[in-house]
Amino acid sequence: MSFPYNNSFLQSNKGLYYYKLINEIFKDYHIFKLSPLRFGSNKQIKYWKKYYKKIGLSLLQYELGSSHNLLAGNDKLKFV
């Protein structure tokens, strides 16, 4: 595959990041669902605001997206 890395983690942006790739692979099985993005505590939100500003975006809290927490909490996956 030859896709750019999606450093914004937003579904609408081109490229892939790990969750978007996993979601794409299993899309026909309807295992994963998008949910509102959340960025944690005030300290974490401060970090993410700085991160998104650096890549030319504003923090898009509550926009639909995906995260590693959704993967980890998915009861259809078995971690070995």
Question: What is the gyration radius calculated from CA atoms?
Answer: 14 Å
Major pleated sheet:
2 strands, antiparallel
Helix/strand/pairing category: mainly alpha
Q: pLDDT average, as an integer?
A: 82
| Major sheet strand order | 1-2
Which bin fits the share of residues in helices? 25-40%
Label the overall shape.
globular
Helix count from the secondary structure assignment: 3
Provide the succession of SSEs: HEHEH
Brief description of this entry?
With 80 residues, the protein is mainly α.
What does this entry look like structurally?
The protein is mainly alpha-helical and 80 residues long. It has one domain. Helices cover 32% and strands 5% of the residues. It is built from 3 helices and 2 strands, in the order H-E-H-E-H. The chain has a two-stranded antiparallel ribbon. The chain is globular and about 35 Å long. The model has no long low-confidence stretch (mean pLDDT 82).
